[in-house]
Please model this.
Amino acid sequence: MTADGKETWRNAAGQNVDLTKAEDLLTKLSNVRAQSFDATTHPSLKMPVLTVTIRFDENKTETVTFGRAGTDVFAGRADEPGAARVEAMAFEEAVKALDALK
Model:
């Protein structure tokens, strides 16, 4: 979204957020990579620690749910079977960037 020719970002409540912090969060989220894939959904995803929904192209959204079991972090999407084990350190960096937006 742009306001007065400047790009702005809004949180789910519709409040403007700091552009630099929002870009940092998106960068950190995009750095979260799968280390392996499981054919079944991991039980930790039934009680997620984070759910990320991104809206793009006006009508399209993508939602990824993250769960934690001990030191392992898992990610899943409702429209895909199974789960991915993701890099825990990259996930923690993304959570810190999210906390910085609050």
Remarks:
- The mean pLDDT is 88.
- The chain has one domain: 18-101.
- DSSP finds two helices and nine strands in the chain.
